[in-house]
Amino acid sequence: MIEDLKHHYAYLFEDELLKEIQAVGQLKTCPANDIIMDIGQTVTMIPLVLTGAIKIFREDTNGDDLLLYFIEQGDTCAMTLTCCLGVKKSEIRAIAEVDTTVLMIPVEYMSLWMTRYKSWQNFILQSYHERMTELLEALDSIAFLKLDERLLKYLRDKALVNRNDTIQVTHQIIAQDLHSSRVVISRLLKTLENEKKIELNRNQIKILDL
Q1: Beta strands in the chain (DSSP E)
Q2: How does pLDDT run across 124-140, given as a tens digit for each residue?
Q3: Is 107 exposed, middle or buried (CB count within 10 Å of its CB: 0-12, 13-18, 19+)?
Q4: Which end of the chain has the least Cβ crowding within 10 Å, N or C?
Q5: Which of 74-83, 85-94, 183-192, 198-207 has the lowest mean pLDDT?
Q6: What pLDDT does 65 receive?
Q7: How far is CA 91 from CA 44, 81, 106, in A?
Q8: Under a CB-based contact definition with an 8 Å cutoff, are residues 79 and 88 in contact?
Q9: Which of 166, 162, 160 is nearest to 198 (CA)?
């Protein structure tokens, strides 16, 4: 654990803070598609992603998921941090995008380290900024982009967080993530393939236009 922790966070945090994180952190291994945090769950831990990636969803009034953004290695989740400001229930669903390892930090250390370590304070504030920027991008894509443009952005984002231009995903999963139907997504994927932007294989998509 300490090696993964140092690999992703040593350039951010001093040794003393890394030792504290290791001492209080709880290592959690999450298989792909595992729910790491669910809507309505009381937030007691802050996740630091060591390996893999997580996708963050909101739920609409019909109970359907809407993808907001991804968090990857070296990141944490702004929505979780917001809930840590008080004893609150989660307003998001966090699902492992791939096999993922996270270090769960008890929430009481968030404010303690904010006053004790400038590096932690900078990390938290930067995380807020990055996640809020991604959230605004997600809202903009829903409001202003056509579905084919949203689909290509989704595929590119997915490839980037997976660190692989070939992603393992079904048309049905894409449809659920983008709040569309499988038939529509399959048609748009075929169009993107004809435009030489992607290459389709069984449950696998190679992004040619990253």
Answers
A1: 26-30, 35-37, 45-51, 53-59, 65-72, 93-96, 100-106, 166-168, 198-201, 204-207
A2: 888 888 888 888 888 88
A3: buried
A4: C
A5: 74-83
A6: 80
A7: 13, 11, 18
A8: no
A9: 166
Cα separation values, 31 from 78, 99, 125, 181, Å: 22, 4, 29, 26
The pTM score is: 0.79
Q: Which residue's entry shows tokens 């991604």?
A: 134
Q: Side by side, which strands form the sheet with 93-96?
A: 35-37, 93-96, 53-59, 65-72
SS (H, E, C) 94-129: EEECCCEEEEEEECHHHHHHHHHCHHHHHHHHHHHH
CA of 80: how far to CAs of 4, 92, 200, in Å?
Answer: 22, 8, 35
By three-state DSSP, how is residue 63 classified?
A: coil
63: left (phi > 0), else alpha (psi -120 to 50), else beta? Answer: left
User: 125-131: long-range contacts at Cβ-Cβ below 8 A with a sequence spacing of 24 or more?
Assistant: 127/75, 127/76, 127/77, 127/78, 127/81, 128/78, 128/81, 130/75, 130/78, 131/69, 131/71, 131/77, 131/78, 131/79
Q: What are phi and psi of 46, to 5 degrees?
A: -105, 125
> What is the rounded CA–CA span in Å between residue 17 and residue 80?
20
